[in-house]
Amino acid sequence: MCIRDRARLTRRPRPCRPQVTAEEIGSQVALEYGQAMTVRVCKADGETMPVVVVQNASVLDLKKALRRHVQLRQARQGGVQHLSWKYIWRTYHLTYGGEKLADDRKKLREYGIRNRDEVSFIKKLRK
Question: Which stretch of DSSP H or E encloses residue 97?
């Protein structure tokens, strides 16, 4: 065995970068204590994204949580790093039970959205 091979064998393994953020840990703790809920956002292609928001979240809070979820997923998978969310919200909207979630200030509870409910991410029709 040559010196180079021994050096490679005795080298300490590099620690892996953590894949879980402090925000995600905080969200899971809030879920366990009943302070948050999971809203499943369904895309047209059938993909479902579980998004965690606080119990008294507004539609805007859900949109921000969805944005953060997508950004984290893209960073982990090495996909596109930048999306124009201004374009996305001009082109798509969220619906629940056939009703558009149009008012960003309105609480999810006012739309009847509860823990583990599904919200659809649908393309807007052209006018």
Answer: none
**Each residue's pLDDT tens digit, 21-44:** 888 898 899 999 999 999 999 998
Residue recorded with tokens 């999971």: 38
Closest C-alpha among 55, 40, 53, 56 to residue 121: 40
- Give the largest Cα separation in the chain, rounded: 74
Topology adopted by domain 19-123: Ubiquitin-like (UB roll) (3.10.20)
Helices (H) and strands (E) in the chain, counts: 5, 5
pLDDT digits (tens, 9 = 90+) for 73-103: 888 888 777 889 999 999 999 999 999 999 9
Helix (H, G, I), strand (E, B) or coil at 58: strand
